[in-house]
Write a structure and sequence with these properties.
Elements lengths: L10 H4 L2 H8 L1 H4 L11 H24 L1
Length: 65
């Protein structure tokens, strides 16, 4: 065990659940409106989470490191 054994239990790591929960709750974004650039909300909401999740992973990595 060493000093680093408790490192992954920091509160920042819990933030990684945000994209999982946001995309798992399908009734929230199962809609056509508001459309953005011709894409229904259902699609652009999911696509928006791709860069947001990458940014979130980077932030958590920097805070836990």
């Amino acid at each position: 065990m060493g000093e680093d054994s408790g490192k992954s239990s920091t509160p920042w790591v819990w933030g990684l659940l945000l994209p999982y929960i946001a995309l798992l709750w399908l009734p929230f974004y199962n809609a056509k409106e508001p459309a953005f650039a011709g894409f229904p909300f259902f699609y652009w909401y999911q696509f928006a989470w791709v860069p947001l999740t990458s940014l979130l992973i980077y932030l958590v990595y920097r805070k836990v490191k």
